Amino acid sequence: MKKQIISAALAAVISAGLFVSPVQQYVGTSTVAFAAETVSVPKASRKSGTYSSSGTLTVRLTADSGSQIYYSTGGSYKLYTKTLKITKNTTLKFYAQKNGAIPHGEIALVVSSQAGAYALERAKNAGVPAQTVPSSLVQQDFERAIEHLLAAYKIDVILLAGFLSILSESFTKKWPRRILNIHPSLIPSFCGKGMYGLKVHEAALARGVKVTGATVHFVNEIPDGGEIVLQKAVEIEPGDTAETLQRRVMEQAEWQLLPRAAELVCREIAEKEEQ
Fold first, then answer.
1. Active-site residue, selected from the candidate residues 104, 148, 183, 217
2. What is the per-residue pLDDT across 15-51, written as a single tens digit (0 to 9) for each?
3. What are the domain boundaries of the chain?
4. Are strands 179-183 and 211-218 parallel, antiparallel or unpaired?
């Protein structure tokens, strides 16, 4: 069963493609000998299979534009980025998914603390329920309203993106390893209370670092202090401004990491329920 996800998000996450239609799944396994070096993965499909080779072979997995490939040689799935060396008796499993897709989860609700957030309109256009819980409420009432929505929509996982309200310890402890946040830097650099949005990129440029990036982490009571789930580096280019850097970090890191992290958590929950 797909896990229900709430996205407490602003427009950046919505435009990342989280609201794609559910991917068509290919079900089944097969064992074949590699006859060629390239295995093509159909567009907009999740194809998984088992492939064995009798010797050492360099394998290239290809997918149509807009898709990513994940592979496993016996352990957890990893993002495929280059050729693989498959040796005798090695089993390769892989699947492809459209960028932004979450095969084991679906966005069931979008909540914003700002009534005018464009994410709410994007959600409605995608057929996803959208609600506003104003940040002007006192903390206890604010979190109580969110908890009511979580229960009403039977939410399993919470994604925070551009969500600037700090959740209390009493709230986060109810959702251990179920709340994910995206931060536009490589934590532990340029993070913590008061570091958000353009402020992060301005700080990176002022410090003169050559590489920045984004981090997805679990949320606890400490701002940006939870366990790191995924990170991706982005190089700072000559002439960058805070605005150009912000955009590139979004495109090259944030919009890729958050759906991947959501899938990791949703898949882990689903697998535990099947045991």
1. 183
2. 222 222 222 222 222 222 333 334 444 444 444 455 5
3. 3-19+102-274, 24-98
4. antiparallel
